[in-house]
Amino acid sequence: MNKTYTLSYHRYQIHSSFKFNKDHLKQLTRAFNKNPGSVNSVLGGRTAVKRIQIPGFDRLIIKHFTRGGLVRYFIKNKYIRWGKTRCRIEYEMIKTAEKCGIKVPEPIIHAHLGSLFYKCWLVTKEIPGGKTLADFSIDNKTQIKII
Questions:
Q1: CB 64 within 8 A of CB 50
Q2: How far is CA 109 from the centre of its chain?
Q3: pLDDT, tens digit, for every residue of 57-109?
Q4: How many whole angstroms from its chain centre is CA 29?
Q5: 28 and 123 in contact (C-beta within 8 Å)?
Q6: Are the C-beta atoms of 30 and 43 separated by less than 8 Å?
Q7: What is each CA distance from 91 to 17, 44, 104, in whole angstroms?
Q8: Who's near 138: CB < 8 A, 6+ residues apart?
Q9: By three-state DSSP, how is residue 44 classified?
């Protein structure tokens, strides 16, 4: 079983199976604070992902968690803590899928800022040449079957 490192860096709680130094953490948290932008496609989700290169690591993808539904009009990117954070739940689901032999992006970090009300991020390795299901659907309209 992989060791999990829990780090506190400038009020961020960062959990990872890799050791990161202060320069890495500074670069990551700076990327967390940048606006991820919006997606240009209906199928693309609520928020664009950010790509980042950290020395000693492959290219990484940062997913910013944002609210959906009606709540998004009042609270865009904060969640109420009720058990595990959203990023930790997704991190653990990806780890489980990986153990089952499903090809998924390798999860690197889940991080959050805040306690009762929090923002969170998930960092995974980028799959070179990888496409999202939304991109595949847009590029291959003839292969998509609507049920």
A1: yes
A2: 8
A3: 889 989 888 776 676 667 667 777 788 998 999 999 999 999 999 888 899 99
A4: 13
A5: yes
A6: no
A7: 11, 20, 11
A8: 41, 43
A9: helix
Contact criterion met (CB below 8 Å) for 5 and 15:
yes
User: Is-contact 52 28, C-beta < 8 A?
Assistant: yes
- Judge whether 34 and 42 are in contact, CB under 8 Å: no
Closest Cα partner for 105 from 43, 48, 58? 58
Q: Which two tokens stand for residue 103?
A: 């090809």
Q: What's the pLDDT score for residue 42?
A: 53
Q: Which tokens belong to 70?
A: 């009606």
In terms of Cα–Cα distance, which of 116, 46, 122 is closest to 91?
122
At residue 111, what are phi and psi to the nearest 5 degrees?
-140, 150
Quote the strand ranges of 5-135, DSSP E: 5-9, 12-16, 50-52, 60-64, 79-80, 107-114, 117-125
Q: How far apart are CA 132 and CA 41, in angstroms?
A: 12
Instruction: Flag whether the pTM goes above 0.85.
Output: no
Tokens, residue 140: 């291959």
